[in-house]
Amino acid sequence: MWNRIILLFCLFISSFSFGQVTGAYQPAYDLVQIDSLAKVEQGGPPVFSIDPGLIQERLKKLENEIPLNYNIITHQFVEIFAFRKASFTQRMLERKDIYFPLYEKYLKKYGLPDELKYLSLIESGLENKAISNKGAGGLWQFMPYTARGDFGMRVDQYIDERFDAERATDAACQYLKRLHKTFGDWHLALAAYNTGPSNVKRAMRRCGGANDFWGIYACLPAQTRAYVPQFIAITYMMNFHWDHSIQPENWVIDIPKDSILVSGYLNLNTLTRLTGFSLDTLKRINPHLISHFLPKNANKVKVHIPKSHFAYFEQNRSRILDSARVDLSAPDSAEIDTNETEEPTPVAQRHTYRVKRGETLSGVARKLGLSVSELKRLNRIKGTKLQKGQTLVYFKLAKASKKYSKRSSFKKRKKTSRKKKKTKSKKRRKRR
Predict the structure, then answer these.
(1) CA nearest 71: which of 291, 225, 265, 301?
(2) Which tens digit of pLDDT belongs to each residue from 151-171?
(3) Alpha-carbon span 125 to 148, nearest angstrom
């Protein structure tokens, strides 16, 4: 009885631990699974639908550099992905061709095991703009401070390079290589990617100096205990999904694109209008561009343009870019004090809202001034329920800059200066 109480207490406390990506988007993870997992850990009788010998044999065949251990826990997650989360597995099969070639390219570049490409499925569900309730974002779920501090990514209201698939994949490969060098074990490196190196080292000390994942399993946070078994299970399902009647139906096709590097201010509305495609298309292929323009301090930002329009863009490159670099929010040059500099006013700014207890989707939408459908679209919400503490993203038009909002301010300055001159001339006359 005491063992059961202690285990449940550990599960509760460990949910508050955090590291680089703790609280990350977990597409196949919920509290019901934790409860089910706890029963197995307490010696509950497992009831399996898939032959254990079959999974064990296939995992041995798949195993390369990263051990794919078979045990009751990994078997349970195989069945979760095969039955309860079969729709998630199918969605991963439909989306993988967009990102796997990119993953394989960078894994090869850094000399990492090819099977690490399956880790992103557990991290983000291959959703490029996935954001966790802790603020981790992108395919590889980087926290803002890690993205900026360790890998020099730009993360602000204009540009979020965590959503740039290539930039994020390069950073994830560097980080995984660093973690493997630290621990010398792939399972520990994966655990550290989820909960942070310090939490893994703490678990090693608490478990008497054990130096392998299954040796420190009981000392890890609940989410991290499930992380490696999920990775093993999704690796199995991606290779043997046919045998469990799961197959892709609606393949997600990426838009072919070419890229340019842009520095300085650029109005994206003008760029798309003159090039002949929609702003929605630009945002779809450039998820890292948050605003409708690039700020003045943008430095070599990659902008993707649909391949079908790139030839036209190249032919008219100078004209299009010159027009897109005109800041329409600024007043005439004659009225601007050249000593003063100000960031161009954005068309829309990104905001976040944290859901409170008892709030509904319609109530929050009304509070934010949005339609329910728009709020669902921005946050990729499929159902109608919200959870307490859930972070929602929405956009609002920014207020016009007060400095140059009215031309009358300049005219007033001129009038006052003339009055001063008149008073001076009157004094001079009196003296004479």
Answers:
(1) 225
(2) 999 999 999 999 999 999 999
(3) 23
